[in-house]
User: Fold this.
Amino acid sequence: MLAGLQAGAVGVPFMPVRGFLGTDYLKVRPEFRVIENPYNPGEPVVVVPAIRPDVALIHGFRADAGGNVLTDPTQDAGLMARASRLTIVTVEEFQEAPLGRGPGFIPALYVGAVAVARGGARPGACPGYYGRDEAEIKAYVGLARTEAGFREYLTRYVLNGVPAQRP
Assistant:
């Protein structure tokens, strides 16, 4: 997936990757192709098609008035934003002053809309703000097995609002 997003982010139709030759990936992913390396004839190389999501939904730490966003630098949110046609970002905090550039910085150029949604990564984690809610994740796994259970989950955890802090 990473190679496909990288291709999408830079606007090329595919990305060559190493390590897939001789694996089952080529059996279960027919869109992965083996071609001849144009720079070393006779050498096979696997190519992965570009991934260009229509919309990316990303949750970040904070945004500034210019639409720049700061996200978890250990995730690939910036890559996802660059590869996507439209990126919508929710954040924990908003600030008027410009954000400093650095790891996890996504320039406004790649952001279509920003909204403050404290707790918006729940039940997942937002490092520095809150951890994963294991109990809610377990509830989701149990309830989402049926349509009625999924509706119950949505009512209980989503439609009734996401608390900013849970004990």
